[in-house]
Amino acid sequence: MAVKQSAVPKKKLFTSKDWAGYVFSAPLLIGILGFAIYPMVAAFIMSFQKTSNSLVGEWVGISNYVYVLTDQIFWQSIYNTFYMGILSVVLGVILSFVLASLIYNVPSSKWRNFFKGVYFLPNVVSLVATSILFTFLFNPGKEGLLNFFIGLFGFDPIGWFTDPTYSRFSIVLMTLWGMLGYNTIIFIASLTSVPRDLYEAAEIDGANWFKKWFYITVPYLKPIIMFMVIIGTINAMKRFTDVWLIGGTAGNPAGSLMTAVLYIYRNGFLSSQMGIATAASYILFMFILVLTIVLLISNRKNNFD
Amino acid sequence: MKTVPIDSEIKKNQVIAYKSIKKTRLVGNIVLTGILLFGSLIMIIPFLWMVLTSFDWQARLNIPFPPRFWPKEFSIRTYTLAFSNIPMMKYIFNSLLISIGVIVVSLSSALMSGYAISKLKFKGSTIVLVLALSTMMIPFEMTMIPQYLLFSKLSLLDSYWAFYLPALNFAFGTFLSKSFVDQIPASLREAGIIDGASEFIVFLKIYLPLCLPILATMVILQFLAVWNDLLWPLLALQTPDKFTIQLGLAMFSYNKDLPLPSVIMAATTVSLLPVILTYLFLQRYIVESIALSGIKQ
What we know:
CATH superfamily of the largest domain in chain A: MetI-like
Number of domains of chain B: 2
Distance between the termini of chain B: 66 Å
CATH superfamily of the largest domain in chain B: MetI-like
CATH class of the largest domain in chain A: Mainly Alpha
Oligomer: heterodimer
Strand content of chain B: under 5%
Shape of chain A: globular
Radius of gyration of chain B: 28 Å
Shape of chain B: flat
Number of helices of chain A: 14
Strand content of chain A: under 5%
Number of domains of chain A: 2
Largest sheet of chain A: 2 strands, antiparallel
Order of helices and strands of chain A: HHEEHHHHHHHHHHHH
Largest sheet of chain B: none
Strand order of the largest sheet of chain A: 1-2
Structural class of chain B: mainly alpha
CATH architecture of the largest domain in chain B: Orthogonal Bundle
Radius of gyration of chain A: 26 Å
Helix content of chain A: over 70%
CATH topology of the largest domain in chain A: MetI-like fold
Number of helices of chain B: 13
């Protein structure tokens, strides 16, 4: 042993510090290898195979991709996903930005915290509970709370979740209720980073609150707004739980709630067409990847820290 | 022209001007608070309605018309029915078990790797960080099918290992820990090593206690994520005995017509209790954690 040690050159390839680093990172690396890299590669291979419930199958070339790309239901699901995603992100960012500006200007910190707490509350509630709750609130009959409310203004009951004309918008309304607080508190946190002397200078120049808001606050928070739009869109691409609970695996009513992930779930786990499902997931991933790249570029450009 | 206003008159005018500014400010604040209170009502009413209706025995078959908030026939029998129809306690216990396991595994992995990347600066640490950050971009929906098949092959489906093992890859936690440890001086480690402590002891005894704030943030993030998740439990768990609370609730109400309104509302209320109670006690802290992690992301 002693002889061997002296034979080792003085400069070792890995120092003990390196070894400690590898041991410390081993759990993470195992996790990355097993649950990120491996599934990505496996999914890629599977997307070229005809498989049902197994990792290997008959090689079928690009026919899974052809099937997905020519499947009308897939394009319907992409359309629905984007429709609900874009609408909820745009409305959500605008509303939460206004809301954050309002809360930020509340003079008493006690009330500020109260409002932050209240508006954020729906965000800790699970999508399962939210979906169940809104199925009752949006009950298509006249006994639904929302229908009763619009009935007071003389409107007929609306089939919020049962009429394909309204179902997607109803999901957007539900999403707004659930997610508004998240964007809001992030906006509030970043509002505190706007230098106060900018406002004071503007005040001396005689700017009113709207001008201050529009010419100082909005440009200053532009990177954060941009960031929220893209993160929100990426998350919206993954919509599953609420539409599955409300519209079932068919995305009812009339397929208006069929989303991309629901399409993947349906093909993979109900029809056991895992090759088709993984092909669809790669196509969805391409959509998400493009959005992520846009995020990274805009992030680097603005470089806010 | 020739009369110069006397001091007291200027002061009087100033006071009036000041008072009017103060008055508009006050009115503005009242309007502001009013708008925000109205909005708060919209946020709260759905909960309030659900919780109150869940005590309404008459609402067990149909939602009452006209809608009412106060139960006509107050009863806790809806809750008894909910508990006898759905093994709620079992599901809550399962969810807790999974949450705790995932938190322990993911936080250990994240803190250790974050510390190593920040302070040990081993060969290839940058590669590890970049690798971790790029896996954050892979959505779970992308990897769920091979992951499902992997656990099926390992015969670990329908067991909680299907939750604990993937928790090893908590890349966002690694990133959070790394940026937190970056702010702690490296001289602490050197001093410890000189005193003869091993790398692991240095991490455990010196750095870990200093990491408590970020640890708490990660506990909150992971607890909310795991407790509220549905998709992976839906795929991985098959025996009803092992269901999480979300899956159990979803399976019970997975029916377009939602029978037994007030019973389902009672069950939903119970499913929310752990999260809402935590929120009530740690509200400010949770809000702060989410804001911090959101900005960091």
